[in-house]
């Protein structure tokens, strides 16, 4: 018995004659692992994909009749089905969804649904088509009897149907219940189709003009965002300059005694863009004062060169003796100079943009599309200022935005 058990456990199928070894290796085997068809990292491999050839009985299938509940003629059909499912309903019957079209009586029609533009026979014909074609109004309009009745559009048929549905829902609803009454706006549907027809009948020139206008609108929006961002940066610089001056005045007036920490926290915080933010050496160990004078890496080379040039113009040594007071004063001076440099750059950009707008306004005024400029004040460069009332009044319809991105003052100097 032990030998027979061992022999039954090690029983394997022999490869049939004429079958290649590679094909036989693809078959399922309980004692062997699945051969990898492609390199894979998963542990299961292709075991679930292989056909399981075993000695179990196959589930019986039977050729049996069935009826489709969607058909009303009682037609009998045949198909193959599992024997265990005999007598069950047709599985695809659950997809047979029908629309519940309301039914009205003669008395209800005469009391609530009567309309001078519609006869009862025409209304009955409309609801009969709605039941037959499941509210597919395009098909209903195609099958509508236009010879016997008045010629109607799809919107007219929809409007009549949903008007009757809303009336019947209001009549038959119990008092105090919330109704979801279907509403159809025929006028809006007609206007929508007219606009769609106009859009479809556009010429290639009109399509190209619309695309051009969309591109120009995107350019205007991007330039507007850039101007808003520059305005915010300029406001931050002005706020930083005001806060730094106020803090230094308060420090000079205050006594040399150490203030409590609560009052220090109440001081307004300086924005990050104000001047230079020098690193604090709070780590343990020995540090040199000259390290505190070193500019941080966030300052660009352009600002460093401009800072050195301003220090040379003021006659300040670039590498002073690093005492405690000199280090603090030197860092404050460089921070103020960098803030002044940034304010000058922002002021130059604003002046250049204002000059570009002034030239464009003058060009449009010469062309005759806008009235002449009104001189309200003279600028430092000797040019006349813009009349704000005229810009807001007559010129706002003509001037949309400056076409083309304005150049910076530095780029103009390089070209000259």
From TrEMBL:
Signal peptide positions (record): none
Task: List where this protein forms a coiled coil.
Answer: none
Enumerate the spans annotated as DAMP1 SANT/Myb-like domain: 90-168
**Ranges annotated as biased composition (Basic and acidic residues):** 224-233
Q: Name one GO cellular component term.
A: NuA4 histone acetyltransferase complex
Quick one: where's region Disordered? 224-270
- Domain DNA methyltransferase 1-associated: start-end pairs: 209-367
The keyword Ion transport is annotated on this UniProt entry: no
GO MF term list: methyltransferase activity; transcription corepressor activity
UniProt keyword terms in alphabetical order? Chromatin regulator, Methyltransferase, Nucleus, Transcription, Transcription regulation, Transferase
Superkingdom assignment: Eukaryota
Tagged with keyword Signal:
no
Where is it chiefly localized?
Answer: nucleus
Q: Which GO terms describe its biological process?
A: chromatin remodeling; DNA repair; methylation; negative regulation of transcription by RNA polymerase II
Subcellular location(s) of the protein = Nucleus
**Protein name, UniProt field:** DNA methyltransferase 1-associated protein 1
Organism of origin is Calypte anna (Anna's hummingbird)
């Amino acid at each position: 018995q032990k030998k027979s058990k061992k022999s039954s456990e090690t029983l394997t199928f022999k490869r049939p004659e004429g079958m290649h070894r590679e094909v036989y290796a693809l078959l399922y085997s309980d004692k062997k692992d699945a051969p990898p068809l492609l390199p894979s990292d998963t542990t299961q491999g292709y075991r679930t994909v292989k056909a399981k050839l075993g000695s179990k009985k196959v589930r019986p299938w039977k050729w049996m009749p069935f009826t489709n509940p969607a058909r009303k003629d009682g037609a009998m059909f045949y198909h193959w089905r599992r024997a265990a499912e005999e007598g069950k309903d047709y599985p695809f019957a659950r997809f047979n969804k029908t629309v519940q079209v309301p039914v009205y009586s003669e008395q209800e029609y005469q009391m609530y649904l009567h309309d001078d533009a519609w006869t009862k026979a025409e209304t009955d014909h409309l609801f009969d088509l709605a039941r037959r074609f499941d509210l597919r109004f395009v098909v209903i309009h195609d099958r509508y009897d236009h010879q016997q009745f008045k010629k109607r559009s799809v919107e007219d048929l929809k409007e009549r149907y949903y008007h009757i549905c809303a009336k019947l829902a209001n009549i038959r609803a119990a008092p105090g219940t919330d109704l979801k009454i279907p509403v159809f706006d025929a006028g809006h549907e007609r206007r929508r189709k007219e606009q769609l027809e106009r859009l479809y009948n556009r010429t290639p020139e009109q399509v190209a003009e619309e695309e051009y206008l969309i591109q120009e609108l995107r350019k205007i929006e991007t330039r507007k965002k850039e101007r808003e961002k520059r305005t915010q940066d300029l406001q931050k610089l002005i706020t930083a300059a005001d806060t730094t001056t106020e803090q230094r005045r308060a420090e000079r007036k205050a006594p040399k005694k150490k203030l409590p920490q609560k009052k220090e926290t109440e001081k307004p915080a300086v924005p990050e863009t104000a001047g230079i933010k020098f690193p604090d050496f709070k780590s343990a160990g020995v540090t040199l004062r000259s390290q505190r004078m070193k500019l941080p890496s966030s300052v660009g080379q352009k600002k460093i060169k401009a800072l050195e040039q301003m220090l040379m113009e003021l006659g300040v040594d670039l590498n002073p003796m690093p005492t405690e007071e000199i280090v603090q004063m030197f860092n404050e001076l460089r921070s103020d100079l960098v803030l002044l440099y940034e304010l000058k750059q922002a002021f130059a950009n604003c002046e250049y943009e204002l000059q570009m707008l002034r030239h464009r306004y003058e060009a449009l005024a010469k062309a005759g599309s806008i009235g002449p400029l009104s001189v309200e004040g003279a600028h430092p460069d000797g040019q006349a200022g813009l009349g704000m009332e005229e810009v807001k009044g007559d010129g706002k319809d003509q001037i949309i935005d400056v076409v083309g991105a304005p150049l910076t003052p530095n780029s103009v100097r390089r070209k000259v």
